[in-house]
Amino acid sequence: NPSNHVRIVEVGARDGLQNEKTLLPAEVKIALIDRLSSTGLKTIEATSFVSPTWVPQLADAAEVFRGIRKVPGVSYPVLVPNLQGYERAREVGVTEIAVFTAASEAFNRKNINASIDESIERFIPVMEQAQADEVAVRGYVSTVLGCPYQGEVPVADVVRVARRMYELGCDEISLGDTIGVGTPARARAMLHAVAQEVPIHALAVHFHDTYGQALANILACLEEGVRVVDSAVSGTGGCPYAKGATGNVASEDVVYMLHGMGMETGIDLDLLIATGAWLAAQLHKETASRVTRARTAA
Ligand code: HMG
Ligand code: MG
């Protein structure tokens, strides 16, 4: 009997902000993460220690990570593409990281200037150092249901990359529909195939809502047994190297759905809605969360 508890991995401060035209000052990012910390979220991805030339939006990663209030019991992982990023992260006290690659060769070339195999070679030393330092490592596999450059991505490629990352020591593998093209039956079949090789309790799903399929896909994956879901408050996000990809599914909408189904998240939905509305105001745009729109309508 799968548990009734779902852990939300809040990626708004990282995935959400990496693709925004509006550059938020570090103090606003810090305020965002501090607000998120008081909602009951247990995992809040804080930023990325990637190349500032590639992602200028997160060039202030060190300042942001230093500035946030670290609430006991809450994890603040960060994205790390290589040893240089790992060292920058460790200097400011990071204790959890995420490495990332994709199931598509074409996407990896655009996103990290490496093939799948090269990207895995590149993070082997990162993994070794992390293990020596007792730093937890999450692994992202992108383009699991389609690629903006090569189109279809065979499920076998997703399984192979996910299994390899798990064998290398990732504690959790997040399966990303980077461009939001997936539909529920395909999402479920993909997860089912990966779960033959990686235990389901070590898997997470990460849906972008480009085609409006994210909540349906999450529901299908919950039925398959997944209990970790990535989402971004206010539905911000997108990868700058995935043309046309829009935001992540909004955390408010996921939490509303889960609570409505009698599942628990430990999150205070009202506080999450207030945080999402606040963030949308900071970004001078309308929230993408349907729940927040409904609740804040006059
Ligand atoms: P490169 O240009 O091939 O790397 O980039 P390089 O090693 O030749 O380095 C070039 C320059 O960058 C050098 O500086 C390095 O020092 C510097 P220079 O000598 O020219 O002055 N550099 C760095 N500086 C700071 N921190 C670092 C770092 N590394 C190198 N860590 C690289 C390769 C991987 C670095 C680059 O392609 C990169 O940073 N890419 C990141 C792209 C990215 O962040 N994409 C978004 C995240 S993935 C995503 O959103 C998907 C996800 O949400 C799941 C999903 O939705 O599917 C996770
Ligand atoms: Mg993403």
Automatic annotation (TrEMBL):
InterPro entries: Aldolase_TIM, HMGL, PYR_CT
Entry superkingdom: Bacteria
Example of a GO MF term: hydroxymethylglutaryl-CoA lyase activity
CDD domains assigned: DRE_TIM_HMGL (cd07938)
Gene3D superfamilies linked to this entry: Aldolase class I
Keywords annotated in UniProt: Lyase, Metal-binding
EC number: 4.1.3.4
Residue ranges constituting the Pyruvate carboxyltransferase domain according to the UniProt record: 6-273
GO biological process, one term: ketone body biosynthetic process
Associated pathway: Metabolic intermediate metabolism; (S)-3-hydroxy-3-methylglutaryl-CoA degradation; acetoacetate from (S)-3-hydroxy-3-methylglutaryl-CoA: step 1/1
Family: Belongs to the HMG-CoA lyase family.
Official protein name in the record: hydroxymethylglutaryl-CoA lyase
Source organism per UniProt: Rhodanobacter thiooxydans
Taxonomic lineage: Bacteria, Pseudomonadati, Pseudomonadota, Gammaproteobacteria, Lysobacterales
